[in-house]
Amino acid sequence: VQLVESGGGLVQAGGSLRLSCVASGSRFSNYAMGWYRQAPGKERENVAIMSSDGRAFYEDSMKSRFTISRDNVKNTLHLQMNSLTRDDKAMHYCAAGVTMDPPHYWGQGTQVTVTS
Questions:
Q1: Alpha-carbon distance 9 to 26, whole Å?
Q2: % pLDDT > 90, the chain
Q3: Most buried residue among 43, 56, 79, 84 by CB atoms closer than 10 A?
């Protein structure tokens, strides 16, 4: 499985971005998918995960602002991020796996930068 992220960029605080991850290969619908992020000097952290049957799990601090979704026909995972703050500045990674502890596959990442 190959994962390619897009949608990152520069946004002002309070703005929104929608990240996308396209998966190649088969069995996309069998995998849990998720978004992770890593800021400079910090450990990688979970943002949101969606199980193969569509259940969503969020990091508590992001639950009210972010929405994860998937399209099993287009092999695509999305993350809608609203009300962005400077604390959201990080490289964001798409990941997939039978389980997410840890994920088996990773994308290269897409950078999110938030300016004040």
A1: 29
A2: 92
A3: 79
Q: How many CB atoms lie within 10 A of CB 4?
A: 13
The per-residue pLDDT for 47 is 98
pLDDT over 90 (residue 37): yes
Q: Are 7 and 18 in contact (CB under 8 A)?
A: yes
Cis omega (within 30 of 0) for bond into 102: yes
How far is 11 from 28, CA to CA, in rounded Å? 30
Contact 35, 93 (CB under 8 A): yes
Q: Helix (H, G, I), strand (E, B), or coil: what is residue 29?
A: helix
